[in-house]
Specification:
18 strands, Adenylosuccinate Synthetase, Chain A, domain 3, binds inosinic acid, Adenylosuccinate Synthetase, subunit A, domain 2, alpha/beta, binds magnesium ion, single chain, Adenylosuccinate Synthetase, Chain A, domain 1, 10-stranded mixed sheet, 12 helices
Length: 390
């Protein structure tokens, strides 16, 4: 079975947690989009782990594949594998050599561009890497593996005329790291036939990055990321014809957060609720350390996300963060405001749906009916065990 897990809001919905929870050892977890701009947090056995590029299946010992439109920053990948190894996790990682490489130069350009554009990017170089890809000057991993990269790097630096020779050595070093990283490189065809379509996996889980509203085509352009984030992009970037994942899971929080600039209809600009959500939700960017903007749940956007991704299952995360609020605001699919009663009892140890307070169940049922999609996974805490399946 092919399963897609994407964010239904502006990223940081908890895709990493849900991917880790659902993945079984005999699965393949594929990272197919985005790059080091992502940040996934996974917690189990009282320890918290943070990933940016390696698929979240690593903690369940699944096979892992980076492919499609995922963007590989060699320095970050190397650091992440070292970090995992130092925590005794061996990543069984396959990397598609068609993936685009992101270099130190791209980070510099990102930082400079964003001073002018003020999108509030993560400064990880994603935008400039993707524009170099579209301009056909970016390097692919296979260029490095085949030895055909020095002139290509020089051309890339020449085109970015502000950065000439003095940048060469640093970027060359980053490229050459690819030759020493402990991963297995595969061709795109092999990624498809020997991994995606290999019968040895029970499920192939396509782990999304960022969120639906940050999609380059369907998000809040120009305040969005530079790649596709929605599930319908999976067959295209993987080269799978019309083979869409049978299960399309949308991960969302019962409130909304956004890092970076751009419109935010339900934003809470000040007051105790804002502080409550930011503090209890630990709404601070995994990568950038920026405090996230927060707001009430927006079902109008969530319905758009359902249509864009054809969700047939929803996973709600961070339900516990709402505990203690007197009243919970919700913008419905027709843009009318609702206020739901809050609840005061701790839900972080609830093991099944029935054990939740009735106010929480009312909220969940309202969301599910509004979006016309079952909410099959409910997260009531950061730990892997704090997850309810329905
Ligand atoms: P970029 O992807 O770094 O170019 O950033 C573009 C926009 O997407 C900014 O608003 C970022 O804050 C946002 N963004 C990018 N990646 C993530 C993510 O993984 N989670 C949340 N926001 C993200
Ligand atoms: Mg994140």
């Amino acid at each position: 079975m092919f399963i897609s897990i994407v964010g239904a809001q502006f990223g940081d919905e908890g895709k990493g947690k849900i991917t880790d929870f659902l993945a079984k050892q005999k699965d393949l977890v594929v990272r197919w989009s985005g790059g080091s701009n992502a940040g996934h947090t996974i917690k189990f056995n009282n320890k918290e782990y943070k990933l940016r590029l390696v698929p979240s299946g690593v903690f369940k010992d699944t096979d892992l594949l980076i492919s499609g439109n995922a963007i590989v920053d060699p320095i970050l990948l190397n650091e992440e594998l070292t970090y995992l190894a130092s925590n005794d996790f061996v990543a069984k990682l396959y990397v598609d050599e068609e993936c685009i490489v992101s270099l130190p130069i791209h980070k510099k350009i990102d930082a400079r561009n964003d001073m002018i554009l003020n999108i509030g990017t993560t400064k990880s170089g994603i935008g400039p890497t993707v524009s170099d890809f579209a301009a056909r000057i970016a390097l692919k991993i296979k260029d490095v593996l085949s030895g055909d990269y020095k002139e290509k790097l020089r051309n890339l630096l020449k085109i970015h005329t502000d950065y000439l020779e003095e940048e060469y050595e640093e970027n060359l070093k980053a490229l050459e790291l690819l030759k020493t990283i402990p991963v297995t490189y595969v061709t795109r065809e092999c990624a498809r036939t020997d991994f995606i379509y290999a019968s040895r996996y029970t499920n192939v889980i396509f782990e999304g990055a960022q969120g639906t509203m940050l999609d380059i085509n369907h998000g809040t352009y120009p305040f969005c990321t530079s790649t596709a984030t929605i599930s319908s992009a999976i067959p295209y970037v993987m080269g799978m014809g019309y083979d869409f994942p049978e299960i399309s899971i949308g991960v969302f929080k019962p409130y909304v957060t956004r890092v970076g600039n751009g419109a935010f209809k339900t934003e809470i600009l000040e007051g105790s609720v804002k502080e409550h959500l930011q503090t209890l939700g630990k709404e601070i960017g995994t990568n950038t350390g920026r405090t996230r903007r927060v707001g009430w749940l927006d079902l109008y956007d969530l319905k758009q996300a359902k249509e864009l991704n054809d969700f047939n299952s929803l996973a709600i995360t961070k339900l516990d963060v709402l505990t203690g609020l007197d009243s919970i605001g919700v913008l419905d699919t027709r843009k009318n405001w609702w206020n739901f009663n809050g609840w005061q009892t701790d839900i972080t140890n609830c093991k099944n749906y029935d054990a939740l307070p009735s106010a929480a169940k009312e909220l969940i049922d309202f969301i599910s009916k509004s979006i016309n999609t079952p909410i099959e996974t409910i997260s009531v805490g950061a730990d892997r065990t704090q997850t309810i399946e329905r």
